[in-house]
Specification:
Number of domains: 2
CATH superfamily of the largest domain: Glutaredoxin
Number of helices: 7
Low-confidence stretches: 1-6
Strand order of the largest sheet: 2-3-1-4-5
CATH class of the largest domain: Alpha Beta
Shape: elongated
Order of helices and strands: HHHHEHHEEEEH
Length: 178
């Protein structure tokens, strides 16, 4: 995708292109996903495009990056903002390098997830949806279900599942994050 359509803002005012905010590598990654869908269905690549832009920006999306993704995909910016604000794997504010999500849905809750959340908060000195002062760890807001119920309680760290957690295993995993 070239993003060659004009970028028109409120009141018909022309907006400056933000495509240059996306690295060449990020644009290639987005184009890879766009090619997986029929022509004219680039909206289907929106989640993958936002994840690529987020990865480029050390774990979070800025309004300008979301605008650049919208321009690249030739979508109205509001469609991209809606996706970015809906999915829990997308962050729209600065956060720590490592994203930690502890599942708190029923299977994990029954196996001690709430206690693990409290343990992680105490160990890290932060609450859910906060980052450690050194910017190392972001303890994401509660996750409803990460679809690994047989491994409850579990958490996801940087998109990697860790199952059958205990406070000791949780500590070891957190300590290993640099």
């Amino acid at each position: 995708m070239n993003g060659e359509r004009s970028n028109i803002g409120v009141g018909g005012t022309a907006l400056a292109s933000k495509l240059s905010l996306l690295s060449e590598e990020t644009r290639r990654e987005i184009d890879h996903w766009v090619r997986r869908f029929p022509p004219g269905r680039q909206r289907s690549a929106c989640i993958a495009a936002l994840r690529a832009a987020q990865e480029q920006n050390r774990g979070y999306l800025t309004p300008d990056l979301m605008d650049a993704v919208a321009e690249h995909l030739q979508l109205p910016p509001i469609q991209v903002y809606e996706v970015a604000s809906f999915y829990s794997m997308l962050e729209t504010h600065a956060c720590g390098r490592h994203h930690v999500s502890i599942c708190t849905n029923i299977s994990c809750m029954l196996r001690g997830a709430e206690e693990l959340v409290a343990h992680a908060e105490g160990r890290l000195g932060i609450k859910l949806n906060e980052s450690t002062p050194d910017g190392r760890i972001f303890l994401k807001r509660e996750e409803e279900c990460l679809a690994a119920c047989t491994g409850a309680p579990m958490m996801m760290v940087d998109h990697v599942f860790h199952e059958h957690l205990t406070p000791e295993r949780l500590d070891a995993i957190l300590d290993a994050l640099k």
